[in-house]
Amino acid sequence: MSAEEAVDAATVPPGVAPLYREIAREEWARLAAGMAQPLTETEVVQLRGLGDRLDLAEVRDVYLPLSRLLSLYATAIKRLGADTAGFLNEPDTTTPFVVGVAGSVAVGKSTIARLLRELMSRWADTPRVELVTTDGFLYPNAELERRGLMDRKGFPESYDRRALVDFLVEIKSGADEVRAPYYSHMRYDIVPDAHVTVRRPDVVIVEGLNVLQPPPSPNDVAVSELFDFSIYVDADASHIERWYVDRFLALRHAAFSNPNSFFKVFADLSDEESVTRALGYWNDINLPNLEENVLPTRHRATLVLRKGPDHAVERVLLRKL
Question: Where are the alpha helices (DSSP H) in the chain?
Answer without folding.
Answer: 3-10, 25-29, 41-47, 56-58, 64-87, 109-120, 141-147, 161-172, 237-252, 271-281, 287-289
